[in-house]
Amino acid sequence: MATAEIPGGESEPQEVSRFSREEEASLLAESNAQKAQANAFFTSSQYSQAVGEYGKALSLCPNYLEYEIAVLKSNIAACHLKLEDWKAAVDSASAALDALDRLLPKEKKEKDDKTDGNGDGVVEIEGEGEDAEEELKKLEISDQRKDDMQRIRAKALMRRAKAKSQLGGWGNLQGAEDDYKALSKLPSLPPQDNKIVQKALAELPLQINRAKENEMGDMIGKLKELGNGILKPFGLSTDNFQMTKDEKTGGYSMNFNQNQ
Fold first, then answer.
1. What pTM value is reported for the model?
2. Residue 169 and residue 78: Cα distance in Å, rounded?
3. What's the CA dihedral at 155, 159, 161, 164 to 10 degrees?
4. For residue 236, is pLDDT > 90?
5. What is the largest CA-CA distance in the chain?
6. Which range has the worst mean pLDDT, 40-49, 66-75, 166-175, 227-236?
7. Exposure string for 45-60, b = 16+ CB within 10 A, e = fewer
C-alpha cells in the first residue's frame, strides 16, 4: 500500500497502480527475456554487460512484483562481487532484501486470511471437487514461493556479507557478522554455504576487535590534534592531561600534570 498526502498533513492508504493481467504478463515476459540475456552474459564472465541487461530487465518489471525485483537485485549484487565493486554489491543485495521484506507482510496477511481464526494455523479449503483442487494448488504455489523467497534471501545475505567483509572497517565487519548470524538461523542452508558461514563467524570477532581498536586509535589521535590546537595558546597540550582507566568499572578519570 502506498500513502498519499491529504490536507492537514495526514495520509491515507492508496492502492498501488497495477497493470491489467494481460499487460503484466507481457511486461514480465519481456523482463524475463532480458534476464535470460543477462544470465548468458554472467555465465560467459561478461559481468559489466550482465549488470546492464539486468538493469533493463528491472526497468521492464512492474515495480510491485517484489519477488522478481529481489531476484534481479540479488543477481546484480553477484555481478558486482565478480567486478569487486564491494559498495555496489552491498547496495544491490540490500535492495534485494528490502524487496523481500516488503513482500513478507503481504504473504503473512494472505496466510492469516486463510486461517480458521483460532490461531492454530489450520487452513480451511472452501468449495468441493474442482474448486477444492484449485484451492490446494494455490496453497502449494504459496509454499513453493516461500521456499523460493528463503533461497533468494540466503543468496542476498551471503553476497552482502561477503561484500561487507571485503570493504572492511568496524561497521562493515560488524554488519557482515550480523548477516552471517542471520544465515546461520536459516533452515536448509546448503552445506557448502553453511561451512562458509561458520568459518566467517569464527574469524570475524577478532577482525572486528582489531578494526574497532584501529578506528578508536585514529579517532583519539584526531581528538588529540584538535585539543592541542585549542590548548596551545595557553601553553598547554593534551600531554598535560592523563587518562586513567578504572579496570573495575571500565570508566576513565582525568589527571592534570602541569610539568608535562
1. 0.70
2. 22
3. -160
4. no
5. 95
6. 227-236
7. ebbebbbbbbebbbeb
